[in-house]
Amino acid sequence: MGIGKKWAMSALVSCFVLTMVGCGSNNNAAGNGTAGEMIKFASDASYAPMEYMDTDTIKGFDIDFIKAVMEEAGIKYSVTNTGWDTMLSSVKQGTEYQAGLSSVSITDERKETYDYSIPYFESTNMIMVKEGSDIKNALDLKDKVVAVQGATTADDLMSGIMGVDNANLKRFDSNAVALMELNSGGADAVVADIAIVNEYIKNNPKEKLTGIIDKENFGSEYYGILYPKGSEWKAKLDPAIKAIIENGKYAEIYKTWFGEEPDTATLLSAE
Amino acid sequence: MDFRFDIIVHYLPVLLRGTLFTIGVSIVSILFGSILGLGIGFGKMAPKAIFRWPFHSYINFFRGTPLYVQILIVHFGVIPAFYGTTNVLLTSFVALSLNSAAYSAEIFRAGIQSIDPGQREAALSLGMTKWQAMRFIILPQAIKRMVPAFGNEFIVLVKDSSLLALVAAPEIMYWSNTMKGQYLRIWEPYLTAALIYFILTYSLSKLLNYIERKV
Amino acid sequence: MEPIISVRHLHKSFGAHRVLTDINVDIHSREVVVVIGPSGSGKSTFLRCLNLLEQPQDGDIIIEGTSLMAKSTRINDIRTEVGMVFQQFNLFPHKKVIENIMLAPVQVRKWPEDKAREKALELLQKVGLSEKAEMYPASLSGGQSQRVAIARALAMEPKIMLFDEPTSALDPEMVGEVLAVMKDLAREGMTMVVVTHEMGFAREVGDRVLFMEQGVVVEEGAPEQLFGNPSHERTQEFLSKVL
């Protein structure tokens, strides 16, 4: 047993310790609130640019948005990257985490189990294909092989068009894998949130991809904060959300992330 | 805790199809895996180290890396290289067979090496070839000892096949995930999946007990 | 007359450990040669070299005019003519007694099943175990097991039989039944090489006795000479301990 082995051992231990510390400090940014109460948000930060991890820091539109909301409300908060499943089960219980912030689309089926905030983001799904594809709109996808991230509204929409048990509709764990399937020739198209698709096309110009918007078949959908049924937080935070949308703070954040003006009128009239 | 049986009923038909997929993939993979594993197991017992090396590496690689990553490599690397595009059915068979072969190889090797060397010597002293000694004397005894380990491997394989959901293989976990997405509920899909896997593996272990008593 | 086994300058080592040094022995047809010596003297290794269960490093073994060390020799063919009986019997536990005996004649000699069965039953009768034909080895006593093992080796109709301490693993009361079978065999004229600690057997049945120690043949001779009047000091010392 020489120096080398000892060195490797201590390096290993250091890595382990650093990892543990990383977990502990868990990405929470405290607000400026003075009241004793505090709300903890759970998130699945694997959905750039909405929420994602930049090494050990959680970032994204949703994160900046909630910061503005909590400043407006004057309540302490934290956001933790728990992953999707943990977020769902713990928000349903409402004890450890009182809310979910993760670009969760508002649907009637989900409302059977959860409460939502007022809509805070308007999104639409978008089709991404390779350049030169004969696909022009969502209905063209009916007989094609389509890759989506499972458990998203893209999944819902395509299940509606293609049938929930259609083998040509491939649901992946994340958009990253779905996009890889398109690149490897295993799918003719990917359907995902507009923000995701644009971001991907922008970052991968070599892959010769184009996005298709189909307003007719892919209607607008809205994201909401996820609460357990009967949560008192809804009443506390909804006015703050409304306030920052109305006072221009929301548009400011939106522009830094997407480079364009949001349609706040539609957002406020939705629900 | 509220539990919604209605959404399980709604998903039952596709879950059953997923179950058939899981069973099919597991059976094909354990078969191909054992055949391949037998070859690799013999390779690892080669008298010269240089011939053992590739088999040794194969086993180390497949036992030492996560199946999760192996599935991705097979799906996006290996299959497109041979087949042109990705193909989830091929990925399922190939990834699980290759992985299972590594474990089967070790089961074979351990089983064969557990037989008293005197058995082989007795066979050889009667004029049998090495192959005859293996076929008539060593393998029949070794296989009997391997059955429990193989049963374990089969059960692990059935459960591991759930990782194929990663590349959208329409198996049990995949449909559970779909159910989860539609309703954003996790206990109904996951507990249902767990129950199905339990029924599969429990029946399997009963079947293996029966086989163990027979051989 | 040409010896049936001729061992010339045989050397064997396991790694750096020398086990056999320059062994030279001729064994003639119908001869019973008994090999004695202390544990670790190399006598079992010597025996196992005669059918190449151990590969010697140097020297030659010629059986019926064929060199075992020649590249062209097919060792399986030699082994069909040289039967072997092991200390631990090494019966095949997954096969019935009769199948243990029939297997090699059918698979190696390519005899038809009927012929092999007939031969097996005849041999079982010879070793006095006809009623055990359909049993599995696990139900046999040690003495019975060793008698089946002898029958199994004889089924190949070998010209030579090697016995590697055939009675060492047996309870004392079972030694006699195995030695009785071996005596019969010797009387019928089988060429036998026997490694044993049974000095009584060596004296009574052996035509010639080899005394080995530390990998060399120290002394050889007729039993009455070797036991009665050993010429070598080490032989005397060994015999004084075991007799």
UniProtKB/TrEMBL annotation, chain A:
Keyword terms of this UniProt record: Signal
Q: State the superkingdom.
A: Bacteria
What Pfam families has UniProt attached to this entry?
SBP_bac_3
All copies of domain Ionotropic glutamate receptor C-terminal, residue ranges? 38-260
Q: Which Gene3D superfamilies match?
A: Periplasmic binding protein-like II (3.40.190.10)
Q: Does the record carry Glycoprotein as a key word?
A: no
Instruction: List the InterPro entries.
Output: Iontro_rcpt_C, Solute-binding_3/MltF_N
Q: Does the keyword Signal apply?
A: yes
The residues forming the signal peptide are 1-29
Q: Which residues form the Solute-binding protein family 3/N-terminal domain?
A: 38-261
List where this protein forms a coiled coil: none
Q: What is this protein called?
A: Glutamine-binding periplasmic protein
Q: Please name the gene that encodes this protein.
A: glnH_1
From TrEMBL, chain B:
Q: What is its main location?
A: membrane
Alphabetic keyword roster: Amino-acid transport, Cell membrane, Membrane, Transmembrane, Transmembrane helix, Transport
Tell me where in this chain the ABC transmembrane type-1 domain is found: 19-208
Report the domain of life of the source organism: Bacteria
Query: Where do the coiled-coil regions begin and end?
Result: none
- What NCBIfam families does UniProt report for this protein, alphabetically? HEQRo_perm_3TM
Put simply, this protein is called L-cystine transport system permease protein YecS
Q: Which organism is it from?
A: Paenibacillus auburnensis
* Upper classification of the organism: Bacteria, Bacillati, Bacillota, Bacilli, Bacillales
Its gene?
yecS_4
Automatic annotation (TrEMBL), chain C:
Q: Name one Pfam family in it.
A: ABC_tran
Q: Which PROSITE patterns match?
A: ABC_TRANSPORTER_1, ABC_TRANSPORTER_2
Quote the subcellular location field of this record: Cell membrane
Give GO MF terms, alphabetically: ATP binding
The answer, when asked if Zinc is one of the entry's keywords, is no
- Gene3D superfamilies cross-referenced by the UniProt entry: P-loop containing nucleotide triphosphate hydrolases
Q: How does it sit in the membrane?
A: Peripheral membrane protein
* UniProt xrefs under SMART domains: AAA
Could you name the domain of life of the organism this protein comes from? Answer: Bacteria
Give the main localization category: membrane
UniProt domain ABC transporter: residue ranges: 5-239
Keywords assigned by UniProt, alphabetized: Amino-acid transport, ATP-binding, Cell membrane, Membrane, Nucleotide-binding, Transport
* PANTHER family in alphabetical order: AMINO ACID IMPORT ATP-BINDING PROTEIN, GLUTAMATE_ASPARTATE IMPORT ATP-BINDING PROTEIN GLTL
The family assignment reads: Belongs to the ABC transporter superfamily.
Protein's UniProt name? Arginine transport ATP-binding protein ArtM
